[in-house]
Write a structure and sequence with these properties.
There is one protein chain. By secondary structure, the chain is α+β, with helices and mostly antiparallel strands. Helices cover 17% and strands 30% of the residues. The protein has 3 helices and 6 strands. It has helices spanning 30-34, 84-87, 93-103, and strands spanning 12-18, 23-27, 48-57, 63-66, 72-75, 109-113. The protein has a 4-stranded antiparallel β-sheet, with no helix packed on it. The protein has a two-stranded antiparallel ribbon with strand order 1-2. The radius of gyration is 20 Å and the shape is elongated.
């Protein structure tokens, strides 16, 4: 794209490897601007990520979520429910599987916190 001199635009810095030449690489793509994470080095423990889409439901009960363009994260089954041991231990496997299938659907957006 061509921009006029002194015009203002939203840009996200993507690469600073040419800092000796005072050159940085930036992007104006909406997907890059809206992404919470672009690479694994941007993921910090304790950070809460909202509206993260589920990309896969695993056979063991866990789910994979997409934190960014090329950054996926695993949510193990133990961490999917707030009261997993107290509530789900009371139900039989059929009820647990039905509840799991209803709550965690591919494409649904959830809130996750990075633990490590």
């Amino acid at each position: 794209k061509h921009y006029a001199l002194r015009s203002k635009h939203k840009v996200r810095v993507v690469n600073t490897s040419n800092w000796m030449d005072n050159i940085v690489s930036g992007s104006t793509q909406p997907a890059i601007l809206d992404a919470a994470v672009l690479c694994m080095s941007h993921v910090t423990p304790g950070t809460l990520y909202r509206d993260v889409p589920i990309i896969s439901v695993l056979d063991n009960g866990g789910v994979l979520v997409a934190l960014g363009e090329n950054v996926n994260a695993l949510v193990p089954p133990l961490h999917l429910y707030d009261c997993a041991s107290a509530i789900l231990a009371k139900h039989n496997n059929f009820v647990k599987n039905r509840e799991h299938a209803r709550r965690f659907v591919i494409g649904k957006k959830i809130t996750v916190r990075c633990l490590s």
